[in-house]
Design a protein that fits this description.
There is one protein chain. By secondary structure, this protein is mostly helical. The protein has eight helices and seven strands; from the N terminus they run H-E-H-H-E-E-H-H-E-E-H-H-E-H-E. A hairpin with a 2-residue loop joins strand 2 and strand 3. Helix 2 packs across helix 5. The chain starts with a helix and ends in a 12-residue tail after the last strand. 12% of the residues are buried.
């Protein structure tokens, strides 16, 4: 069990959750906001009106310059969606939201959140099995993804909730929480 299950647990508690991977998926879908600008930089990646990740991967996997160009298009679009999501939660008088951001530290976004929870497959074999089970995943793509992510053993000092991802739902429904470290949400003050 991984982050999608934990996201579901938060949703079950009535807490709005935004999954950055889903936001990107929507941006890449037909009529998604990223389709035209990405096609302009990486010709041939649009198939049936949406971005084909396999075609896009030919440009960006293993090519840091092209990855940065892609991120220069996609990250601002994701950030705009995140701002809308937070504003909608604020308008709905929600005091807490969950932002599921796989590259939180790698993109420097940890400074924009009030608390951090980590759900990670600490066993790299488990992580690899999960990722390799995705449609279209190859060993090369897996290694490229892994090289862009921090090791699971990042310093957990700023982390308020840490849950190793495992096969047991029971162990995840009772997370280790250090509530004394949770700050007041910045919009609640």
């Amino acid at each position: 069990m991984g982050k999608s299950t934990v996201d579901g647990l938060f949703r079950d508690l009535g807490i709005p959750v935004q999954d950055a991977d889903k936001v990107v998926h929507d941006l890449y879908a037909p009529q998604g906001a990223a389709v035209q600008p990405v096609e302009a930089i990486f010709p041939g990646v649009v198939v049936d009106g949406g971005i084909n990740r396999a075609e896009l991967g030919k440009y960006v996997l293993g090519n840091e310059e092209n990855m940065k160009r892609l991120e220069g298009i996609v990250h601002p679009l994701v950030e705009a969606e995140r701002a809308k999501f937070i504003e909608n939660a604020r308008q709905d008088a929600k005091r807490l939201v969950v932002l599921d951001i796989p590259l939180l530290y790698e993109t420097g976004l940890e400074s924009q959140v009030d608390a951090v929870a980590v759900v990670s497959a600490m066993d790299t074999r488990v992580q690899k099995e999960r990722v390799m089970a995705r449609p279209g995943m190859t060993e090369e793509k897996f290694e490229a993804i892994l090289s862009r992510q921090r090791a699971a053993a990042v310093s957990l000092e700023p982390v308020h909730l840490c849950r190793p991802s495992c096969s047991s739902h029971l162990s995840t429904t009772k997370p280790t929480l250090r509530p004394h470290l949770l700050p007041e949400p910045h919009w609640a003050t």
